[in-house]
Design a protein that fits this description.
The chain is mainly α. It has helices at about 5-15, 55-80, 90-95, 105-125, 135-145, 150-160, 210-215, 215-225, 230-240, and strands at about 165-175, 180-185, 200-205. The chain binds manganese (III) ion.
Length: about 240
């Protein structure tokens, strides 16, 4: 058995021996170098876990190519013109886009929005057998706002269908009624310029569905309901009411 002191001494000696890192050691290979800025979050399930609603190939490309590109481009823009923002929470950056230097503001809006939206989107989905249904306060709020869950789903799908081109449909806490449906273009969301975070959202960019559903966005949204994580949506609703 080593005493704590001996372990520290051994660790110190090892560190000293490698104090000058080899020029052949890349940042990626060195565990002491943490990536700077934002990173791609892991999916909370296997890439094939949402089949057949969302196929594994679409999920893989969507996560490791599209979402990764938003992260890479966000980091690149901030590194260039506002490196101090690399350490801020993404929500704080999006809520204060006016404070981002003008030269990179569109890039931060699009890629920062893309990063937040996709991180959010992965979390509000789950394998169909765990999807559940709206209940408790969330169910009451849906019924008060849209009469029935079916009417809500119809109105939400309609918002996704009517979003011309690329964008998102969102469920948010409302002013007159407990809940409201909005949609946004591109990678915009309700946090930008001071709004609250949404409690549910669907990505209606073609990259989210085209491989499997081709041009049939309505079929994609219909199948997507099967993999909504209603426990997470309920938790988002609770957080939005408090916030
Ligand atoms: Mn997407």
């Amino acid at each position: 058995m080593f005493t704590r002191r001996e372990i520290l001494r051994t660790a110190g000696a090892t560190a000293a021996a490698f104090a000058v890192p080899s020029i052949f050691a890349t940042a990626a290979a060195r565990e002491d170098v943490k990536p700077v800025g934002f990173t791609l979050p892991k999916l909370p399930y296997d890439v094939a876990a949402l089949e057949p609603s969302i196929d594994a190939e679409t999920m893989t490309i969507h996560h490791t190519k599209h979402h990764q590109a938003y992260v890479t481009n966000l980091n690149a823009a901030l590194t260039k013109d506002a490196p101090e923002l690399l350490k801020k929470p993404i929500e704080q950056i999006l809520a204060n886009l006016k404070d981002v230097p003008e030269a990179i503001r569109p890039a931060v809006r699009n890629n920062g929005g893309g990063h937040w939206n996709h991180s959010f989107f992965w979390n509000i989905m789950t394998p169909a057998e765990k999807s559940g249904a709206p209940k408790g306060d969330l169910l009451k709020a849906i019924e008060e706002s849209f009469k029935t869950v079916d009417e809500f789903k119809k109105a939400f799908a309609d918002a996704g269908m009517k979003r011309f081109g690329s964008g998102w449909a969102w469920l948010v806490t409302g002013k007159e009624k407990p809940l409201a449906i909005v949609s946004s273009p591109n990678q915009d969301n309700t946090i930008m310029d001071g709004g609250k975070a949404p409690i549910l959202g669907v990505d209606v960019w073609e990259h989210a569905y085209y491989l499997k559903y081709r041009n049939l966005r309505a079929d994609y949204i219909k199948a997507w309901w099967n993999v909504v994580n209603w426990d997470v949506v309920a938790a988002n609703f609770d957080a939005a009411k408090k916030g």
